[in-house]
Task: structure prediction
Amino acid sequence: GVGTCLTNRNKYFNELFKVILLTAIAKSTSERYIDCNIVLGLPIQYFKEKDFKQRVIDTFKDYKEENITVDGVSKTINIHNVNVWLEGGIVTLFAEKFIDKKVVIIDIGGYTVDIIEFIYNKPQANKTEMKGVLKLKNKILENVNIDNNATIEDIDDILDAIINRKEYIINKNPIDINKYQSIIMVYLNEIFNILNVSFNLDDKLLLFIGGGSILLEKYIKEFDKDYNLEIIKDEFINARTFQDLSNELYRELEKESKNS
Result:
């Protein structure tokens, strides 16, 4: 279904991604007629492919006079300029902070865990695993349903109780918080095992970002005795990266246009 559609390399060229992008643009402003420039994030393996990058840019530059209705309001969107940048490339926001550091960024999203290594602000190795936090949630809820006959209405409260170590009662029986917390630790151990196998972590700062990292902050911190790690508690950190990059890129473009 949707998850597969939005996690493979061809997602940028299907109709669902187009609708999601146009909806996001439409909701970002009260204007009815929108002229815009965009910056798109690509995983490093795609970012390195010159032809693929160009295909992405050409695809979105073709979005002209696109009509979409959001919250009952009809809007028209024109995309004029398109640039691409690295997903997880948040070091651009902290360039001075990381200029003399070796950093591994771990972005725990809904469907994937995207890992990219930067040495002195330059991208090096990378890895993407289909181990997003939704996989963890499904594992927990699968076990809760087997043990406690939980209903769909209980899901969010159950997860909150487990993650925040609070008591939760279903059908007059408390759920076994410790059991489900162990599932979280197994999940994180898998991520740290991937890091250790795929990267040399000596003298590296492990920088955790993304909604999954924020959600599991308390558990990730339990690894700080063995690793130099930091968690950025800003769920919009990637969006802010691209916003800053967009402002800089298109400010320069405007200057060149005026001088020509």
